[in-house]
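retry 2 of 3: previous attempt timed out while embedding heme C. Reduced batch size to 1 and resubmitted. Inputs unchanged:
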Amino acid sequence: MLRVLVALTLVGCATDGGFVWSLPEGFPEPRVPGDNPMTDAKVELGRHLFYDPRLSGNQTQSCASCHVQELAFTDGLAVSVGSTGEVHPRGSMSLVNVAYAPTLTWASPVLRHLEAQALVPMFGENPVELGLSGREDELLARLRAEPRYVELFPAAFPELDDPFTIDAIAKALAAFQRSLISADSPWDRFAAGDPSAVSEAAVRGGEFFFTEEAECFHCHGGFLFSSSVDHAGNVFDQASFQNNGLYDVDGRGAYPATNTGLFEHSGEPRDMGRFKPPTLRNVALTAPYMHDGSLATLDDVLDHYAAGGTVTTEGPNAGDGRLSPNKSLFVHGFELSAERRADLRAFLDALTDDTLLRDPRFSDPWLTPL
Ligand code: HEC
Ligand code: HEC
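retry 2 succeeded.
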């Protein structure tokens, strides 16, 4: 008993900011920038900011408008709509386990830190999301006027004389997002040794997912079900961008001009249509699918992979993605019987973490008294 108490005390002391990662089995420690250590106070401030509509120019939207907890922090739309009504070319992405993302957004190779990424929805003008560009002073004045922030900002940044800065906002938002760790799905419980956690169909679906016939695991492998994963102590660049054969509008592999993936950043023809493989955790909740929400359901996604790509029959994006010269060799199609479809669906459904969707630590703090 005494030994247990000593051990607990040591853990408590080790993290002097108070924040303790409670990481599931198999999850390494996330990489945290040296100038933004995790503390409970910072995570709590970040949570308030994440849910605060004062973070948009016209005070109609917060981060949470497009990243909804019950939808694993996506928004249910094919493409997102900003606070001024401007339509984003791409759909919202899940923020679950985003602490492990080596690159951020669907296809940027350069956005590598959550601190930097937070500034994009706040101040970006192409497209306008939160619409705060040129309104920095107004934003800070609004936050200073909120009694909760008078407590929360100094608690999170005790080293600063005046903690009401854009830099502090970005750091707190990043800390909150890093705390969004999820691994309590039925599949996790199955992997941890509870054979009754998932159905037999899900077990068969999971087995097929990891075969060379389905190939899913090449791009959606590992503890995040995404090949794009980084963590503390890792020395390899794990950024990953892949073309899964969604489009071919010119017979030479082109994607629609609004969304060319990594090509938009590199200009390299081989990068046309290459996007980050998103995590498949909670994928049953993140419809519609792909960067532009063009596949409505998981059955559409399974049809896509079974066919080795998507054929678009009409409209400006018409073309046969299956024949794209840029398509990954791992997207080659497979036999999809009714039973196999049901098995894969059962497996993907078993990746939903219901605890996360209700976890009070990640919920809107403005709904409850401090
Ligand atoms: C108008 C809707 C909208 C708002 C508001 C919004 N986001 Fe997003 N978010 C998106 C979209 C769309 C993407 C994909 C962007 C892209 O690919 O260019 C995204 C991507 C992200 C990502 C990348 C996730 C990954 O796995 O790579 C992070 C992190 C993120 N948003 C955090 C935030 C934060 C923090 C805020 C508030 C400051 C915010 N978002 C506000 C729509 C929104
Ligand atoms: C060559 C790499 C690769 C392989 C193999 C692959 N995927 Fe993907 N997957 C991706 C990429 C890249 C995206 C995003 C593409 C886009 O947005 O245009 C994606 C997107 C998805 C999505 C949509 C997720 C979302 O949130 O929108 C699902 C679901 C999915 N894949 C499931 C599978 C399954 C099931 C298999 C096996 C049958 C598989 N993938 C095989 C790379 C791959």
